[in-house]
Amino acid sequence: MNDRHDILPAGRHAPRWHTILGWITLLAFVGAQATGFAISAPDRDMGHLQKIMYVHVPAAWMAMIAFFVVFIVSLIYLWRRDERYDLLAAAAAEVGVVLTALTLALGSIWGRATWGIWWTWDPRLTTTAILLVIYAGYLALRAFAEEPERRARWSAAVGILGFLNVPIVYMSVRWWRTIHQVQSSPSTVDSAYVLGLRLNAIAFLLLFLYLLAIRYHASRAERVAEARLEEAALMGGIHV
Predict the structure, then answer these.
(1) What is the number of structural domains in the chain?
(2) pTM for the whole thing?
(3) Which residue range is the domain that position 45 belongs to?
(4) Looking only at Cα atoms, what is the longest distance across the chain?
């Protein structure tokens, strides 16, 4: 494993491009939402509530991308044993958990208007809830495992195995009888919603990259701080 002291230079602040990306993301969200509401008429049955799709669907897409990142960099960690990949996987998992929770919350609101119920054990909803539990467990494991290398190995295993549920979530509406509609995409929705959906997908991609970058940077800074505390304790600078 690489020397943890070399992960992040002392006193280094977040790169300037983080701030720039944050502003770009904010402007993209405002523009995408404004465009979506301006160019698409209210749905006949649900009115403007139909436009929750502009957030619900891209959030689900980005959650799956986040867990794919966890899968890939976990494999790379097991191959390279480089702590940076472990920290990147953890950052992606955190973002993925937040986006999955947002997906379920917005889906419940949409389901209440569409199905007349906040929650039902539909295959798509159930497998998505399981996905949330898996990666929440991934984060809990990282919190309880204290030894860094062991934590990284265990986390990589969970991150890789947990990803097996992602294609199940995606295909659940086709494999089983379900009240959930088939996967939403520009090819399956009304043409009036296509541009708004595409723009919001771009906005959510920018949000994912922004959150991933700032959380990864924070994790690297935390590891440097931990390493310095350990070094100080070993040198007698801290008396436990």
Answers:
(1) 1
(2) 0.86
(3) 15-228
(4) 72
